[in-house]
Amino acid sequence: GELEKAREEFDTAIKMDPGYPEALNNLGSVFYQEKKWDEAIRYYRRALERNPKYGDAHYNLARALAHAGKMDEALTEAQEASKLGINATRLLDTLKNQGENHGVRPKSPQ
User: Fold this and answer.
1) From the CB of residue 58, how many other CB atoms can be counted at a distance below 10 Å?
2) In angstroms, what CA-CA distances link 78 with 9, 18, 30, 86?
3) Residue 47 CB: number of other CB atoms within 10 A?
4) Is 25 in contact with 57 (CB distance < 8 Å)?
5) Labelling 37: which of 29, 47, 71, 106 has CA 20 to 30 A away?
6) In what helix (H) or strand (E) does residue 71 lie, and over which residues does it extend?
7) Intra-chain end-to-end CA distance of the chain, in Å
8) Rounded distance, CA 103 to CA 21, Å?
9) From residue 3, how far is each of 23, 34, 55, 88, 107 by CA, in Å?
10) Phi and psi (nearest 5°) for 52?
């Protein structure tokens, strides 16, 4: 389907330029759509290794981490996305509420 075609195109882009953060982020999003959280996390982190100030990748990583049950890490990434100018207010509120319900304390922005 369409996700398979997208994965192939992003794989090709990454083979041509292994450090292409947008392609890494987009491939992470394909895995996210397939609910393959660990793979999505891996590609979002690779994108951030190449560009630590890539706000969209921090936001996407936060969402994938939350689905994987890693709420404290998800909150940290959402806060970083917010610092980089990404509107993460709704995600931050959701993570804070879920954290309170699961005994996870939100970290204050530094």
Assistant:
1) 25
2) 28, 25, 20, 9
3) 26
4) yes
5) 106
6) helix 71-83
7) 43
8) 34
9) 14, 8, 23, 25, 35
10) -65, -15
Both structure tokens of 31: 């895995």
Query: How far is 32 from 40, CA to CA, in rounded Å?
Result: 5
* Tokens encoding 51: 């560009």
Within 8 A by CB and 6+ apart from 55, the residues are: 80, 81, 84, 85, 86
Token duo for residue 77: 């990434």
The string of pLDDT tens digits covering residues 1-19 is 887 876 677 667 667 666 7
Residue type, 87: N
Tell me the residue type at 29: S
- Report whether 75 contacts 92 (CB < 8 A): yes
Taking the C-alpha atoms of residue 104 and residue 76, their distance in angstroms, rounded to an integer, is 12
What whole-number distance in Å separates Cα of residue 103 and Cα of residue 84? Answer: 27
Interatomic CA distance for residues 109 and 9, integer angstroms: 37
Is the pTM of the predicted complex or chain greater than 0.90? no
